[in-house]
Design brief:
- The complex is a heterodimer.
- Chain A folds into two domains: about 45 residues, no CATH class; about 90 residues, no CATH class.
- Chain A is about 40% helix and about 20% strand.
- Chain A is built from five helices and four strands, in the order ααββαααββ.
- Chain A has a four-stranded antiparallel β-sheet with strand order 2-1-4-3.
- By secondary structure, chain B is α+β, with helices and mostly antiparallel strands.
- Chain B is built from two helices and four strands.
- The longest helix of chain B has 26 residues.
- Chain B is elongated.
- The chains are: A alpha+beta, B alpha+beta.
C-alpha cells in the first residue's frame, strides 16, 4: 500500500481526521501526477502541502486537558506573510523587539514574499511531535 | 474566492448552539456599504504611515480569500467550539 495512503488511513482510524477529509486527501493524492524523475526506489510523491495542521490530543485518562484541531490553509500563510511585509519599518522594529522579549529571535524583515515559496516548500517536511504524559501535540503539513 | 459559508458550533453544559451553513455572502453584501466608508479613511491612514494603499487592500483581500477551508476545533471537557469556513 502507498505510504501516504496508509498514513491517511492511520489518521482516520486514530480519529484525527474525518472520513470526508480522508476521502478528500486520498482524492487529492490520486490527482497528483507521478514524479517525472527517477523514483530512487521509494514511493513518496512530492505533494505540495495545502494545509498546516495543529493537533493537541488529550492522552490522559481524565479528559481534563483541552483538545485542539486547527487546520490553516497554506494560502492564508502566504497571504499573511505578504501582508506582514507591508508593516512599516518602524512598527516592524517594535514587533521584532516584542518577539525577542518573548524569546523568539525572528526578524520579520527577513521573511520576504520572494522567499515565501521556498519557505512553504520546506514546511512540507516539517513535523513536530511532542509527547507528554497527558498531552500529545502534532504540527504537520498535509 | 471569498468564503461563502461558515459553520459555528458551541457546546457547553448549559448551552448548545449550532449554526450550520451561515451564509457569509449575505454578510459581505451587508458590509459593502461599510467598506465604502472605511476605504477613504484607510487611504488617508495609508498616506500618513506611508504604506501602499493598493498593496494593503490587495493583501487584505488575499487574506479574506484564503480563509476558505480554515477549520478550528477546540474541546475542553464539556465545552467545545468549532468554526469551519467554506
Amino acid at each position: 500500500m502507498n505510504e501516504n495512503r496508509r498514513k491517511i488511513l492511520e489518521m482516520l482510524s486514530a480519529g484525527q481526521i474525518t472520513a470526508e477529509e480522508a476521502e478528500r486527501l486520498i482524492g487529492a493524492m490520486e490527482k497528483e501526477p507521478p514524479p517525472s524523475g527517477a523514483s530512487n526506489g521509494t514511493d513518496h510523491p512530492k505533494v505540495k502541502p495545502k494545509y498546516i495542521r495543529v493537533l493537541v490530543e488529550d492522552t490522559g485518562h481524565q479528559g481534563k486537558n483541552p483538545t485542539v484541531n486547527v487546520r490553516v490553509p497554506m494560502q492564508l500563510l502566504r497571504a499573511g506573510v505578504k501582508l506582514a511585509h507591508l508593516i512599516p519599518a518602524q512598527a516592524r522594529v517594535h514587533v521584532n523587539d516584542a518577539l525577542h522579549e518573548k524569546g523568539f529571535d525572528i526578524d520579520l524583515s527577513q521573511i520576504k514574499p520572494e522567499n515565501l515559496e521556498e519557505l512553504v516548500d520546506q514546511l512540507q517536511d516539517l513535523t513536530v511531535d511532542v509527547d507528554d504524559k497527558n498531552v500529545k501535540v502534532r504540527v504537520f503539513c498535509e | 474566492m471569498i468564503p461563502m459559508l461558515a459553520d459555528l458550533r458551541i457546546h457547553s453544559p448549559r448551552r448548545r448552539f449550532a449554526l450550520m451553513g451561515i451564509p457569509l455572502f449575505l454578510l459581505w453584501i451587508l458590509l459593502l456599504p461599510v467598506a465604502l466608508v472605511i476605504l477613504p479613511l484607510l487611504f488617508i491612514v495609508c498616506l500618513a504611515v506611508r504604506v501602499s494603499f493598493f498593496q494593503l487592500v490587495a493583501g487584505l483581500w488575499r487574506v479574506l480569500c484564503s480563509l476558505s477551508d480554515t477549520h478550528v476545533e477546540i474541546k475542553d471537557g464539556q465545552h467545545s467550539v468549532l468554526v469551519h469556513i467554506t
